[in-house]
Amino acid sequence: MKDSLWKSVLGEIELTVSRASFITWFKNTELLTNKDGLLVVGVPTVFVKNQLERKFNDLIIDTLKKNGVEPTKVDYKIHTKGKSTLHKRSSEETVMVVAPQQTDTKPKSSSSVRHSYRQGLNEKYTFDNFIVGSGNELAYAACQAIASAPGTRYNPLFLYGGVGIGKTHLIQAVGNAILSNDPKAHVVYISSEQFVQEFLDAIRYKKNTDFAGFYRSADVLIVDDMQFIAGKEKTQEEFFHTFNALHQANKQIIISSDKPPKDIPTLEERLRSRFNWGMSIDMQIPDFETRCAIVQTKSTTHGITLEPSVVEYLATHVQTNIRELEGALNQLLAFCEMRGLQPELQIATSLLGSSKVRPKHINAKQIVEKTAKHYHVSMEDIMGPKRDKDIVVPRQIAMYILRSELHLSFPKIARELGRKDHTTAIHSVEKIAKESTLDADLRTAISEIKDRLYA
Amino acid sequence: MKLQVTQENLNKALSSVARIANTRGTLPILANVVLRTVGTRLTIAATNLDIAITHYIGSKVSEEGSITVPARLMQDFVGSLPSGVIELKLDDYKLHITTDQYNSVINGVSAEEFPVMPAITEGKNWTIPVKVFKKGLQQVLVAASNDEARPVLTGLYIHTSGGKLYIASTDSYRLAEKEIMPLEEDINILVPASSMQELLRVIGDQDTDIEIIHDDQQVLFKVGEVELMTRLIDGNYPDYKKLIPSTFAVTATLKRADFVNITKVSSLFAKESAGSVTIHADPEAKSVSIRSVASQLGENTAQADADITAEGSITLNSRYLLDALGTLNSDMVMLCFNGKLEPCVLKEAKSTDYIHVIMPLKS
């Protein structure tokens, strides 16, 4: 009765005062007693007491009246929530404990509880089936180091990168590897969204200590998609304490997010600085070879060996997202299996369509400029008549990119670079297309230019 | 509001107050400092709702009033002014700051918007010399916990027992206790360690007394022109005294500098094992040796000359050991312990007023 009254009072006050004021002054208040119109409100600090007495007393009384209570007087009393439990804890616990040496930490809980620590980890994600390429080798190495000695290095590890480039795979692989080394380890894997949900449930069912205890007893805490915690203040606070407790005990913390900590809006500063504490690694979009390797590995697990041309087609068709790449592969394999066909390039192209989607925000001029800039040659030179090798190559690359990205006609490409003859363009595009399959440096240069274009 | 102050005074006040004004909190006004005239003096105050600091400065007040202005801007601006007299004048929430060379206006917010600073109406009141209190704080702060999961341990326990004033702190792995001075009053308060860090910063090296006033919820420290108010932590401090052993099987007395050196060297090899180093006291060789092993890197044994009563060894966290040695002020220090799993004590060889207890690691 008291609780619901105060809740509805707070709900109304929340609408009338600013959010900052509400959080600062009204959160953590509660109605202690309501007797013959004399109400006692429990507040956490003396600042809040002063503020409520002098600034918000009228508002509180008015709101109480609206809720059908005629208060004669409202008193404010400093009151710590959960005070009684606190006392009990401190007397029950021994004050000083022998610190377990970090290397022989062994969880003590019985096996009946333990299975829950495994929740969320999918056994199919392992290091063995993770394909390492230039964009993720640092992350991979860091994760392997952590798996062999959790908590000692790179703590916390913060992985960030776009959608579908293997963050979840990698962090789950760490969890699985740690569990296979030490089956008794408490590995907790959750998404931050799940963390928020459990926290809310814990508040609702007043199981806060269970909640905190569960996460704080973990040996390894893996939190996926950290960005979803942004803007949820209480949860951030709870996570902050969990983080501190674990970090202090040298327990490994691994976090993934789609943005670096500094770019997550409304993430509390103290969390942000803690995330930057250990190691933050940017996971990049996998390069062409890595994508090829992924397609090959995945098709082998399905028992099918694909033609190199099909593999390359798939790897060029989907460039930014491994999940989509897998999707495209599965689509192709399913199609062929149902019809009893061999997966061939022709089927792949007809099924997945041509990859010729013209990006809207990129124009020909930008491409020429970015290419020239990449090779440190001037626009005049690249457009002009000079035929030195260090100008011809960028010019040809520019033509190649114009063709591959914008799908311009050859005469148009020639015109964009100040040439009259479209055969030059045909020759250049063919030459670069051929050489780029052989020359890794050239391929890197092209992908770097493209990265800048799409950045 | 209209008044004149010297740049030196204003700058000093702002630098002790402005630091706690918080730009990142939820309530924007807490990033401001309050300027308010009180009689012939100007007060400058800020708070983060845990601590409030008020600094009084002498000034020539010709018109009373109050205003809040952004702390950072005000501090940076006043800090870069030349020394001399500054005139502050308030005109409709605009603070005009004028010197011979500069003339600026800072847009302020009404002081009415600022949280009401708490005051202690009645409570216990006692004093202690700044130097004594400061030394005590420096020795015990290191052992306080910063884990909010057990709020009681994030505080310093300031209390009297048997007519003496003590400060104690523990994070459950180590414990520090300092006997400050004889005191008749009956004191028993738990002050947040973070507030005491702030107090240390604010009091500087003054050669005066600190006046301490407290009730059940808060405590006020008055030093010269500065007042620091902080909340008290609610809860019962654990009965730590029973943890301090009084008799020891092994006592080693050695030079502090030697002990620090060998511990530092050993800690280099102890990173993998969370700082664990094993100390061995050998009465035959009259030496203390520290050994640490890193399975990947190698291992280390370092020793120092010492007077030893009996043979024994114990495994400690090297970081705690270094922290503890850093709080001891004498040339010769004593390391005393019993069994491998019982608390170990570090103290100064010739004085008994400070004691630092470290729990061993399981080895």
Concise summary:
Chain A is an alpha/beta fold and 455 residues long. Chain A contains 21 helices and eight strands. Chain A starts with a helix and ends with a helix.
Explain what you see.
The complex is a heterodimer of chains A (455) and B (363). Chain A is built from 21 helices and 8 strands. Chain A is an alpha/beta fold and 455 residues long. Chain A has 4 domains: 2-81, DnaA, N-terminal domain (GMP Synthetase, Chain A, domain 3, 2-Layer Sandwich), CATH 3.30.300; 115-282, P-loop containing nucleotide triphosphate hydrolases (Rossmann fold), CATH 3.40.50.300; 288-352, Orthogonal Bundle (Helicase, Ruva Protein, domain 3); 364-454, DnaA protein, C-terminal DNA-binding domain (Chromosomal Replication Initiator Protein Dnaa, Chain: A, Orthogonal Bundle), CATH 1.10.1750.10. In chain A, helix 3 (46-66) links the parallel strand 2 and strand 3 (73-78). In chain A, helix 6 (137-148) runs parallel beside helix 7 (167-181), helix 12 packs across helix 14 and helix 18 (389-406) packs across helix 20. With 363 residues, chain B is α+β, with helices and mostly antiparallel strands. Chain B folds into 3 domains: 2-113, DNA Polymerase III, Chain A, domain 2; 124-242, DNA Polymerase III, subunit A, domain 2 (DNA Polymerase III, Chain A, domain 2), CATH 3.10.150.10; 244-358, DNA Polymerase III, subunit A, domain 2 (DNA Polymerase III, Chain A, domain 2, Roll). Chain B contains 6 helices and 26 strands. A 9-stranded antiparallel β-sheet of chain B has the order 14-11-12-13-26-25-24-18-22. In chain B, strands 6-2-3-4-17-16-15-10 form an 8-stranded antiparallel β-sheet. A 5-stranded antiparallel β-sheet of chain B has the order 5-1-7-8-9. In chain B, helix 1 (7-17) runs antiparallel to helix 2 and helix 5 packs antiparallel against helix 6 (318-327). The longest helix of chain B is centred in the C-terminal third of the chain and has 13 residues, at 256-268. The model of chain B has no long low-confidence stretch (mean pLDDT 90).
